[in-house]
Amino acid sequence: MANVIITGSSKGIGRGLAEAFVRRGHRVVISARGQADIDRTVAELNAIGPGTATGAVCDVAAKDQIQELWDRGSAELGPIDFWINNAGTADARHELHDTPEAIVHTLIDSNLKGTIFGSQVAINGFRQQGSGALYNMLGGSFDGKRLTPNMSVYSSTKAAIWILTKYLLMENRDRGIMIGMISPGMLLSDNWFSEQKKMTPEDWRKIRPILNILCDDVETAAPWLTDEILRNDRYGHRIAWLTTGKMLRRFFAAKVLGRKRDLFSRYGLD
Question: Is 167 among the residues known to form the active site?
Fold first, then answer.
């Protein structure tokens, strides 16, 4: 039975990972910025079992709140086995020159500052324990190989997390700490639906076919990602759901074999 802390875990892939850990009998501490979200999610997770969940309010842009999250988790559960820096947000509506300043601050605070502070707290805790596993969440275009339009600031934060994790790997080798990365793919999360609602009907019609090929529901990817986290023993390994090979197979199935997926009808998105 593992003790797990996941930042930003009342919804989206964070919520999905928390549920998957609980279903496998582990103990999870979730976090979110609102107490109501914490209370609701903890109740849902504990009703699922056989593992257990507790939670704490945490703004990941404030390091003292992240430290309080660690302290609460370790006080209630004992040594922490896994810390997952998941909290973050995305914006897919602006080119760099017209990205509002408020969105820049939000992306940097939640994605980059949250991962930096979370990594500091977790590494210090793991060093004191003598063990533990830290995973940082990557996102689209983190390596600059495939640039996604209108996501310059978001992708820049994820590229920074990629480099940050490389430094963590260099600094913590041979300390009994596992460090890795997670690439969850394109998931239909609350953040995704928020961005979709801001699309024009014309833009949605244009992009819907390719999203049907590339996207997945959170409940599809989260159990597999969780199993990979639990079994991973490769230092610096990136656990990737949507690999290049999987994308190619999906395009072949859709374009050549005519096997088209329909992810959006269940959500009323035609």
Answer: no
